[in-house]
Specification:
- It is a single chain.
- With about 400 residues, the chain is an alpha+beta fold.
- The chain folds into two domains: about 5-130, Carboxypeptidase-like, regulatory domain (Immunoglobulin-like, Sandwich), CATH 2.60.40.1120; about 140-320, Immunoglobulin-like (Sandwich).
- It is about 20% helix and about 40% strand.
- It has helices at about 5-25, 305-310, 320-330, 345-360, 365-390, and strands spanning about 35-50, 50-55, 60-65, 70-75, 85-90, 95-105, 105-110, 120, 125-130, 140-145, 155-165, 170, 180-185, 190-195, 205-210, 210-215, 220-230, 240, 245-255, 260, 265, 270-275, 275-285, 290-295.
- A hairpin with a 4-residue loop joins strand 3 and strand 4 (about 70-75).
- The chain is globular, with a radius of gyration of 23 Å.
Length: about 400
């Protein structure tokens, strides 16, 4: 078996070979006008309980993502002050994106795309974190539960979305198989549970013994993940355990006669999605160890798309303004829910660029528009991070 150090040595050798090939290709094309040099200068700092400290001697990799080529371009080690610098040419596909990544403690961290010819600090800086498998506290900032009308005479679709926050200075990683990074129970009778790709990859979410178990590392900040399952129509009412307190708890029940009680839920104005009525219930600071009881209709309706269902979660976005503000401060991490299933790095990178271009055309955006933009951009960036990390074996 090849050790971790050997694998890294091979990877770095490949990176060097790719960079050499790129330089050779430029030298062999004397008649083509040379693209102007670009620069990325930044630093890598490790976050500790006492503040940020420079991370010296850590490998930093410059990545390129374009329709013609998606690969690492160059790599350097940080100096004693944690600083690094790249000089490169943006050749080939003009819509290609470049960004910088660094791995620490087995976890990869990425910058936003380097859009300007010279990026110094800010978008070129990286924060990395120590890791721990200790049970450090995670906070549920938001939990959204969507219960649809039966799409058959026997079952209905339920979608759950969590926003989980790590408010410490270390990245929590899974310990043994019995110690996931996060866990939540499913209602009794739930079957066919499936996770969706998002800030946390779908394959890092397992379903065992009536629970959803997350085994992905959770770095400081907020991560969103979702899953759906089916419950039989005969299971009425439906009881949803709320083991962890939630800053915002939202329940949507399809049909104007549905109801949800418990965990400090209050009835809000009903909403319509794709011509389908939902009753909406909302709670702030939902207490731990409580139960939400849902009475849902039994009359069959049309089949409900989980992609459409994910969009419903945006209804409660205004309640998470503080969450959006923290994402704005840290820069982009993560796609609108309808895009979460797209795992191609090139497509996700182009969506980030298109999203930025569209937002730049908005004059005097409102607070809600800014929050929506940064939340959407955050999810796209995390999607890009996940896709590239999988592709490059990070």
């Amino acid at each position: 078996m090849i050790g971790i150090g050997a694998r890294r040595s091979v990877a770095l050798a490949l990176l060097a070979a790719l960079a050499a090939l790129a330089r050779t290709g430029e030298a062999q094309a004397p008649h083509a006008p040379a693209a102007p040099l670009r620069e990325a200068r930044g630093s890598v700092h490790r976050v500790t309980a006492k503040g940020e400290v420079p991370l010296a001697g850590n490998w930093v990799v410059l990545h390129r993502v374009g329709s013609d080529l998606a690969a690492p371009v160059d790599s350097v080690r940080t100096d004693a002050a944690g600083r690094f610098a790249f000089r490169y040419r943006a050749t080939g596909d003009t819509s290609a994106l470049f960004f910088v990544a660094s791995s620490y403690g087995g976890i990869a961290y990425f910058t936003p795309p380097l859009k300007k010819p010279v990026v110094a600090g800010g978008d070129a800086d990286l924060l990395v974190y120590d890791t721990t498998s200790a049970p450090i506290p995670l906070t549920v900032r938001g939990r959204h539960v969507i219960i649809t009308a039966p799409d058959t005479g026997k079952g209905r679709l339920v979608l759950e979305v969590f926003e989980v926050s790590n408010d410490t200075s270390v990245t929590r990683i899974a310990g043994t198989p019995e110690r996931p990074t996060f866990a939540t129970p499913l209602p009794e009778g739930a079957t066919g549970a499936v996770a969706a790709d998002g800030d946390i990859p779908a394959d890092a979410v397992k379903f065992e013994n009536g629970r959803a178990l997350v085994f992905a590392p959770i770095a400081p900040g907020v991560k969103q993940f979702s899953f759906h399952y089916r419950v039989p129509v005969s299971k009425a009412p439906i009881a949803f355990p709320v083991l962890a307190a939630a800053s915002v708890l939202e329940v949507l029940v399809e049909d104007t006669q549905g109801s949800a009680t418990g965990a400090k839920l209050k009835k809000m104005a009903s909403v319509n999605l794709d011509g389908r009525p939902f009753r909406r219930f909302l709670a702030q600071d939902a207490p731990a160890n409580s139960v939400v009881t849902v009475i849902a209709p039994t009359q069959a309706g049309r089949a409900f798309s989980t992609r459409i269902a994910l969009v419903v979660v945006g209804i409660g976005a205004a309640m998470l303004a503080g969450l959006a503000a923290s994402l704005m401060r840290r820069g982009p991490l993560v796609a609108r829910a309808s895009e979460l299933g797209d795992a191609d790095p090139d497509d996700v990178a182009r969506k980030i660029a298109a999203l930025d271009d569209a937002f730049e055309q908005v004059e005097n955006p409102t607070a809600d528009q800014r929050a929506d933009h940064y939340e959407t951009r955050a999810r796209l960036k995390a999607r890009l991070t996940s896709a590239i990390a999988r592709r490059d074996g990070l």
